[in-house]
From TrEMBL, chain B:
Keywords for this protein: Cell membrane, Membrane, Transmembrane, Transmembrane helix, Transport
Family membership noted in the UniProt record: Belongs to the binding-protein-dependent transport system permease family.
Main location: membrane
Membrane topology: Multi-pass membrane protein
Entries under InterPro entries matching the protein: MetI-like (IPR000515), MetI-like_sf (IPR035906)
Name of the protein in question: Carbohydrate ABC transporter permease
Record Gene3D superfamilies: MetI-like
Record PANTHER family: ABC TRANSPORTER PERMEASE PROTEIN MG189-RELATED, ABC TRANSPORTER PERMEASE PROTEIN MG189-RELATED-RELATED
Domain (ABC transmembrane type-1) ranges: 67-259
Protein localization: Cell membrane
TM ranges: 71-91, 103-125, 131-152, 179-203, 238-260
């Protein structure tokens, strides 16, 4: 924190000569925390609670519904369901393909855009970002049309060139492509902004030391923007696990995309087609736990390395040395 | 690396990003036959006027009803949400109070919770409270954005110098008055940024309305287009309307992002670098 701005002392003793009004922070914080409690904390608690119960219908369903405690029964039921496991498998394949591709592509484009050779930087930034302004459902609709043989000019062109493409028959790459289209530009902007913030002296130093553009990019620039990489990684993991809209749209056109194709779709189907809220809650909780575990791993890896990683430490040290050396003149 | 190679790769990536949008524009101007026949990337046989007329006529203009709904959910929701976030972020920046960093940690934890995992439990709570299938079921959850609070705190740190607040207090302004007349004004670029991102998020939201709403009169555009799209198998005449409707639904967002470039760039950097 740059500017300490206390109006009261930490111990609660009023600081001299300042009117301490304990009401102000409370009034400002209250709306957010009331809504946060109602729309986030309570639903989480409710989901955990629900996941521990199952509903038993007596007779033909006319006798009313009875809720019975089933412990981890819903969890074992979800994990024992091949459809749920398939959903996780699809999601795992999707993540394995999407996360490295998207991060790599947006990093590569950001580095190219940051290089002195790139032209029309503002134009490229905006054009590459534009797909992010398109709602996910509309992005999925556009690509569904572009994937459909007969409708799609792309498939038509490929056909004319003698390439048989059955994109709708391979759902994982089809969904990965939609996500790539939506998110590469967004993350590119984050990386580009971080690259632009690197002090120019550091880059000059690496040129003086004889590093080429490729070496500078890999050994200086990338380690220096590690915090941005970590943040993008974190948000990409959280976002990827929620995969729902795109496969839901493709479901209408691609027979391979079943209604339980991702864990999120499984939870939705369990709740609204099977009316099994306990199972739906349990699968939502499992998904959230997976997200928490993966986010932990991502922050752990990126955070742990940035401190001890040699390249990064050296580059940072060099940067600060250069900055303090040149500071007087500038 | 040569200049040609660098710019060539960038141009190729731009084509990949822009061509689907070009397709959307030209496809929105085709009739059912041309659209389904793949004759879409050519500028001839213009049919946009007819498609718009169909869009306005179908279901007594229900599409434009959805459009207004979206504007209401996203417009009012985004402004209110940004205000709530900035108030909280300002409080975290300006005041010291017991348990502050723990409370902020809770906010950061909220950023990590997958929102779609919340939609279902939220539906169940809403049905207990009897608000399922109402405006409020979609509107109220869209006012919460923990990441917005985080951003607001970062922005306040950058935009509001302590001396100004001290001066306001010397002049006898109360704390809330100081927030309203000084703090909020100074952090306006941050306010606009959070507002823009929240507008997009609400406009794009699909899962929550899908879970909460069954009355088509309350649908936002995203859900309405989804509903139409599921009917295209049986009624192919819906195809051009889904595509034309999609084009119209993208327009406000593209306009907002092109017009407010410096704000979203500032917002994304504030979140990423600090």
């Amino acid at each position: 924190m740059a500017v300490p701005l206390s109006t009261g002392s930490p111990a609660g003793r009023p600081a001299p000569r300042r009117r301490w009004r304990p009401g102000a922070p409370a009034v400002l914080l209250l709306p957010f925390f009331v809504l946060f409690t109602v729309c986030t904390l309570v639903p989480i608690g409710n989901a955990v609670h629900l996941s521990l119960y199952s509903e038993k219908r007596s007779g033909l369903g006319f006798g009313g519904v009875e809720r019975v405690f089933s412990g981890l029964g819903n969890y074992t039921a979800a994990l024992g369901d091949p459809a749920f496991r398939d959903g996780f498998l699809n999601l795992a394949l999707y993540c394995l393909l999407y996360i490295p591709l998207m991060t790599g592509l947006s990093l590569l484009l950001a580095l190219l855009l940051d290089s002195t050779l790139a032209r029309a930087k503002r134009f490229f930034q905006l054009a590459l970002f534009l797909p992010h302004a398109v709602p996910g459902i509309i992005a999925a609709l556009i690509w569904m049309y572009l994937y459909t043989p007969g409708v799609s000019p792309v498939i038509g062109a490929l056909d004319a060139a003698g390439v048989q493409a059955d994109i709708l028959g391979t759902p994982v790459p089809a969904v990965v492509n939609i996500a790539l289209w939506e998110w590469t530009g967004y993350n590119l902007i984050i990386f580009f902004a971080a690259l632009q913030a690197i002090p120019r002296e550091v880059l000059e130093a690496s040129v003086v030391d004889g590093a080429g553009p490729l070496r500078t990019a890999l050994s200086i620039k990338v380690p220096l923007i590690r915090p941005s990489l970590a943040m993008v990684g974190l948000f990409t993991v959280i976002g990827s696990l929620q995969l729902f809209t795109e496969p839901m749209i493709l479901h209408g056109a691609a027979p391979g995309v079943v209604t339980t194709w991702t864990p999120n779709m499984y939870a939705y189907t369990a709740a609204f087609e099977r009316n099994d809220y306990g199972l739906a809650a349990a699968s939502s909780v499992l998904l959230a736990l997976a997200a928490a575990a993966l986010s932990f791993l991502v922050t752990r890896f990126s955070g742990g390395r940035s401190g001890s990683g040699e390249g990064s430490a050296k580059a940072t040290a060099k940067a600060s040395a250069r900055r303090s050396g040149k500071g007087g003149h500038a | 690396m040569s200049k040609a190679a660098v710019n060539g790769v960038l141009l190729l990536a731009t084509l990949y990003m822009v061509l689907p949008l070009v397709w959307l524009v030209t496809a929105a101007a085709k009739n059912t036959g041309d659209l389904l026949g793949g004759r879409t990337l050519t500028p001839d046989r213009w049919h946009l006027g007819q498609n718009l007329a169909d869009l306005a006529a179908t279901g007594d203009g229900i599409y434009f009803r959805w459009y207004l709904n979206s504007l209401l959910y996203a417009g009012v929701g985004a402004v209110l949400c940004a205000f709530i976030c900035v108030a909280a972020g300002y409080a975290f920046h300006v005041y010291r109070f017991p348990g502050k960093e723990k409370l902020f940690g809770l906010v950061l934890l909220g950023v990590l919770v997958p929102t779609t995992a919340l939609a279902l439990p939220m539906y169940l709570l809403a049905s207990k409270a009897g608000v399922v299938n109402t405006f409020w079921a979609v509107f109220v959850p869209s006012l919460v954005n923990p990441f917005g609070v985080y951003l607001a705190r970062v922005f306040c740190r950058g935009y509001i110098p302590g001396e100004v607040l001290e001066a306001a207090r010397m002049d006898g302004a109360g704390e809330l008055r100081t927030f309203w007349s000084i703090g909020l004004r100074m952090v306006m670029p941050g306010f606009v940024t959070i507002c823009l991102f929240q507008f997009t998020a609400i406009w794009n939201n699909f899962f929550l309305p899908l879970v909460m709403l069954s009355d088509t009169e309350l649908f936002p555009v995203s859900l309405g287009l989804y509903a139409w799209n599921t009917q295209t198998r049986a009624f192919p005449e819906y195809y051009p309307m889904v595509v034309t409707g999609s084009l119209l639904a993208v327009v406000p967002l593209v306009v907002a992002f092109v017009g407010l470039q410096r704000f979203w760039k500032a917002g994304m950097t504030a979140g990423a670098v600090k």
